[in-house]
Amino acid sequence: MTIKKQKIVAYAAVILSVSATAVSTAAQARFPDHPIRLIVPFSPSGSTDLSARLIAEYASHELGQTIVVENRAGAGGSLGMETVARAKADGYTLGMATMSTHGSNTVAYGDRLKYDPIKDFSPITNVATVPSVLAVNRNLKVKTIQEFIALAKAKPGTITYASPGVGSLGNANIEHFASLAGIKLLHVPYKGSGQAMNDALGGQVDAITDNLPSALTHIKTGRLRALALLSDKRSPVLPDVPVYSEIGLPQMGTGGWFGIVAPAGTPPDVVQTLNSAVHVAMKNPDFISKMKDAGATLIPNTPEEFQLQIQQAVERYRAVGKVAELGGK
Question: SUPFAM superfamilies this protein is in (predicted)?
Fold first, then answer.
């Protein structure tokens, strides 16, 4: 091969390399170029679902692509999160992580949990913190949390409570409360929060703990009576309801949260694009108003900060598992 031909081949190789890099960069810059699915690991109409649909609506405007909410309920949110963990790490499959999927499930399911809440996900951002409320059916003749505890002590094992399932966050929180208060309650597990709430409203079970946004309407209409909040402070929508620390149970901690995660290994630039889009969406006055009406407090943060919150949730529920019987009897 002549020197001239060698130079031509070399120039061609350089041009092809530069072109390939440009194409790759352009492809990355176009993210997202088709719809994104956001998996909610619980049934429709719950608090997690509400938050996800607001994010989908407002963040879609920022990304220029539709975010499609997909409900995949089961096993305390584990089935949906397993789907996210196994998805391609390209930013087109996201999941709504909660204190259940990334906290209590690690204790409730143990070796049966088919994902690692820390290693198998790339955190995007936390979205909101939401108080959990312990409420009773209006027919149960108690008006305060102190009266509830007294009744449970007088009739051990007879007061029933509903949860979305064995090992769910609702199950974990009430069993933790019962162990700290020195009472025994009868757990009635359901396949989802909707069924559990229906029977609590109908009086088939006496009590339920649920995220405030899901229970608030029923409390305001008088079908449920709120007794205590799992939160760091009282809620402005329920100013007369005490938090657990006020009744001498600070070990109960604070409320849960909803955040967005992607599969582990999602490119950092994609993570940042999603983080920025969600944060802009969360500044929308309508978004803020709707979340406030639902009793939620917005807590946008960085992926690194959200990763730390996930680690803290795992540690907290490992500690809870040592003192509470997750699943009850």
Answer: Periplasmic binding protein-like II
Mean pLDDT of the chain: 88
Q: Report the distance separating Cα 270 and Cα 266, nearest Å.
A: 7
Task: Using alpha carbons, select from 22, 35, 32, 26 the residue that is nearest to residue 273.
Answer: 32
What is residue 205's three-state secondary structure? Answer: coil
Cα(129)–Cα(29) distance, integer angstroms? 32
Domains of the chain (ranges; CATH) run 36-130+255-322 (3.40.190.150), 132-252 (3.40.190.10)
pLDDT at 22: 43
Q: What is the pLDDT of residues 20-42, one digit of tens each?
A: 444 444 444 589 999 999 999 98
Cα dihedral sign, 156-157-158-163: positive
Signed CA dihedral, 17, 20, 25, 28: sign only: negative
Q: Which residues contact 95 (CB under 8 A, 6 or more apart)?
A: 38, 39, 40, 41, 80, 81, 83, 84, 101, 121, 260, 261, 262
Sign of CA dihedral 322, 324, 327, 329: positive
